[in-house]
Amino acid sequence: MLNLSAVRIVGASQHTTRALNGWTRVLSNWVCAALVLLSIGSFAGQAVAQIGPTEIVGGPGGAAFTDQCPDGEFLTGINYVDGQSVGLAAIAAVCTPFAGNRPTGTEHALRIWGNPNVDRRADYYVKCPLSMAAQDVSVRVANDNFVRQFALICRAIDAHDYKSTTYAEVNVGIAYAKNVGCGGGALAIGIVGRYGTQVDGLGLLCKTMANASPPPPQETTTAKPQASDYAGVWESTIFDVNAKFRIIMRADGDKITADLINEQDTRDNGILTGTVSAKTGTLMYTYTEPQVGGSGAGYFIIRPDGTLLGYTHYTNSSQAMKWGGVRTGDAPPQDTTAQPPITNDGNGDNGTNGATAANDTTIYDQPEGNDVAYLQAGDPVTITSCNGDGWCKISKPRKGWVWGEDLKK
């Protein structure tokens, strides 16, 4: 039996990436994870190390554990055992010694958490690039509350340079995903979690370097982005595949709702909703693509130069993608005017009629017009009239036009 605590697992192939629909076809070549903008503190001079855990993502079962790298080492990977018949059976932290921003020794694994002695086991690992260490972890949890997949977001020791690992992918249905991380000026020095016969929960143990002396007078605190800063029209690009989306964001308090528009393929259009963190200024969001049944989650942040940077991943994928965007204008106001009285124009129904969406479909501003919103199968709608060309005008959930065959009474 392979001893994860004594040797590094190498040469293991990753699982084959599944084909995806809609937006996810674009997102299938990269890993996502959380996005962190807070500035990195200097490791030189007088400093005080503050060590603490992130939230543990997963179910409530199992025994709690904390596993910390030796002094002077950072978490640079995680070995794992895919039990295949039972899912993610065991994990072990991988640590590397650093001096300044450079590794100075050989990586090594700590103890095993879980049950590596399962039938049909397969040994794998996820690993940060050279001279990088883990800062965030993206964890996916199955319906049975066990961890099934995870990926590391890695950062250069002394720079805002980020890379993502592929997912440790155990092919079991995912109920939800969540990213937790160490924040600015901190890196992971171990893992925390819960375990039993499988891995119940996973998080990071973080080490923050903070100046012991007061900051120099010239240093100022930069205000974090607020939801109102995200509001507007963003012309965005998914890097490396050069896919372009227009993101129309609207703010309400700390909440964001947005339309995702792919003018090259409207089937990929979707709806984004999220919340802007008052602490970090990060927009944490989920999205849906009604026409193709896609969904996922991710992060956006507004950088100091005013551009948009983000990561996103599809719910059932092991891969994700990095985004960038430029704000090009204000978001158009939503139509909140009262619906005028319904009159019979001779081309359709006279009166208000309740109906539902027969399948996932689009609401347009006019027949054959521009997308304004989306409906999922079963969503209730109110039909005000239908014309002779097969289009129906609706007043709820918002005003617009829907192809009549996509509705049922």
Overview of the molecule:
The protein is an all-beta fold and 409 residues long. It has three domains: 31-211, Jacalin-like lectin domain (Vitelline Membrane Outer Layer Protein I, subunit A); 227-329, Lipocalin (Beta Barrel), CATH 2.40.128; 353-408, SH3 Domains (SH3 type barrels, Roll), CATH 2.30.30. It has helices at 23-26, 227-230; strands at residues 47-53, 57-58, 63-68, 73-82, 88-99, 102-103, 108-109, 113-114, 122-127, 132-142, 147-156, 162-164, 168-169, 174-181, 186-195, 199-211, 232-238, 243-252, 255-261, 270-276, 283-289, 294-302, 308-314, 320-329, 353-357, 361-364, 371-375, 380-386, 391-396, 400-403, 407-408. An eight-stranded antiparallel beta barrel has the order 17-18-19-20-21-22-23-24. Strands 4, 5, 6, 7, 8 and 9 form a six-stranded antiparallel sheet that branches. A hairpin with a 4-residue loop joins strand 17 and strand 18 (243-252). The model is unreliable at 1-49, 210-220 and 336-352 (pLDDT under 50).
